[in-house]
Amino acid sequence: MKRMISKEKIILKNNRDIILTRDNVLVRKSILNMLPATFVTSFLMMFLFMVDITLAGIFFTPVHIAAIGTAMPVIMLSMAFTNVIAGGANLLLTTALGRGDKEAANRMFSLGMTGPFVLGIVFVVVIELFADPLVTLFGARTPELAEYAAAYLRCYALMVPLNGINRMVGSVCNTYGHAWKYLAESITGIVTNVIFSIVFIKTTSLGVGSLGLGSAVSCVLNVGVGWLIIRQSHIPLRLKLYRYRAKELLEVMVHGLPSTTDSLIDSAVAGIVNNLIVANLGVAGLAIQSVV
């Protein structure tokens, strides 16, 4: 009997012994510990994307609100592609940890940090060069709307390289059981977003672009706080430069694509919807739709 019990127990040593038994006590406790923080974090992310719309309604006009709604599908499309790498790398990271392969886990961590940044830089260059035709494609059918949407898009695009990193940091924090710390980082992001956006509105002549710049700067701070959490929590992952084989990159894409397919579809549909609303209801209709 004792031999059977000993075979059912898996002892993992990480500063203390944790025992997994047949009734999955550890799994149940882990879920109960992570669920509240993970749920609140996801809920707060909804408010993060509402900050710019809300501030535009306070400081600007309905045309500016419509401009944000026009530019947002382009941003979401860019972020979806960078999140393919972050999501796939995190999934393979947790798989590597499960089989005890620390080197493979570190490779995926490094790819999840550097890959979205490099791809994000590519998107920034494309957006900065082609912001005007992009916003026109996604529904900016009047010169005024196109001007505001392009201004907002060019500033907001600066956060695209950091968004994937932020997602990777959050996923790693959750994987290692630090969901509450990541919740604190999310709250920091929302608060600093509001503060910086208002400061830029009052001190610059960027107009609605101030909101995009505020979001980008707050994202920089978010990544810094997340990295600090990883180091202070003694998470045994280090950022290194690796050479990745084409097979590895393809595997990351395959694992990451399912979780971001909905965002890719949503962005494409949003562009079609924006065009239909502007054509039939005008800029005012698009402003209402953006708020909703």
Distance between the termini: 62 Å
| Overall domain count | 1
Give me the side-by-side strand order of the main sheet: 1-2
On the 0 to 100 scale, the average pLDDT is 78
Rg estimate, integer Å: 22 Å
Number of discrete helical segments: 10
Quaternary: single chain
Give structural notes.
Strands 1-2 form a two-stranded antiparallel sheet. It has about 290 residues and is mainly α. The protein is built from ten helices and two strands; from the N terminus they run αββααααααααα. The protein has one domain (about 35-290). Helix 6 (about 145-155) runs parallel beside helix 9 (about 210-230). The radius of gyration is 22 Å and the shape is globular. About 80% of the residues lie in helices and about 5% in strands. The protein has helices at about 1-10, 25-50, 50-60, 60-100, 100-135, 145-155, 160-175, 180-205, 210-230, 245-290; strands spanning about 10-15, 15-20.
Question: What are the defining features of this structure?
Answer:
single chain, 292 residues, mainly alpha, two-stranded antiparallel ribbon, 10 helices, 82% helix, disordered N terminus
List the SSEs and their pairings.
Blueprint: H1 2-8, E1 10-13, E2 17-20, H2 25-48, H3 51-59, H4 62-98, H5 102-137, H6 143-156, H7 160-175, H8 179-203, H9 209-232, H10 246-291
Helix pairs in contact: 2-8, 3-4, 3-8, 4-5, 4-6, 4-7, 4-10, 5-6, 5-7, 6-9, 7-8, 7-9, 8-9
Offer a quick outline of the entry.
This protein is mainly alpha-helical and 292 residues long. The protein contains ten helices and two strands, in the order αββααααααααα.
